[in-house]
Amino acid sequence: MESYKKEFIDFMVSSGVLKFGDFTLKSGRKSPFFMNAGGYVYGSQLKKLGEYYAKAIYENFGTDFDVLFGPAYKGIPLAVSTVIAFDSLYGKQIRYSSNRKEAKDHGDAGIFLGAEIKSGDRVVIIEDVTTSGKSIQETFPVIKSRENEKGDITIKGLMVSLNRQEKGTGNKSALDEIWEVYGFPAKAIVTMGEVIEYLYNSPWGPEREIIINDDLKKALDKYYSMYGAE
């Protein structure tokens, strides 16, 4: 496994963003792990997070895009920290954009926050994690409504931090289904398989604790026997 992936897994765990236990997801699934990008609250964390995302986006989509769209609400700090990192690492000015949950009817009116998405723009979407694909079902119409109003807009792809490798609406992973349904690639910095491989019965951190022990591994195996993608 590449060293940057190990570093990112360490970063998620040490930041308290990747947790293990009993959780109910937005999709309604009961999961033995949970990833919440809202746990990144310090400037140093957001700086690192933006750099990880920027490097992954650069590796997968290059610099050939104009707007980084982060769906409200968690996508907003992700987009902001990543466009800052993109400028710092690659000298490329990328605009950030997001949506409001409710349209504003005064001042900076409308449903969009940040940059205006204009005709001809090439957009990369940024999210924390995609489990069943529900989030993109909400995001895609927001961007397409802009296309209907402004003209041609190209979605270059989606970048998430963690690929949970679970079924979407069928037997394929939600990220694979996004490609089939919406016609753009969906990528992740790391997969859950890589997380399990790295942490299972491996002493972690200064306390050399075992994050994924045999019992948790059994719970993960059971979860993926029900929801794992082909």
TrEMBL record:
Keywords: Glycosyltransferase, Magnesium, Pyrimidine biosynthesis, Transferase
GO MF: magnesium ion binding; orotate phosphoribosyltransferase activity
Source organism of the structure: Candidatus Gallitreponema excrementavium
UniProt gene name: pyrE
UniProt-recorded name of the protein: Orotate phosphoribosyltransferase
Domain of life: Bacteria
Gene Ontology BP, a term: pyrimidine ribonucleoside biosynthetic process
Annotated binding of orotate, by residue: T131, R164
Family as reported in the entry's similarity comment: Belongs to the purine/pyrimidine phosphoribosyltransferase family. PyrE subfamily.
PANTHER family: OROTATE PHOSPHORIBOSYLTRANSFERASE 1-RELATED
Annotated catalysed reactions: orotidine 5'-phosphate + diphosphate = orotate + 5-phospho-alpha-D-ribose 1-diphosphate
InterPro entries, per database record: OPRT, Or_phspho_trans_dom, PRTase-like, PRTase_dom
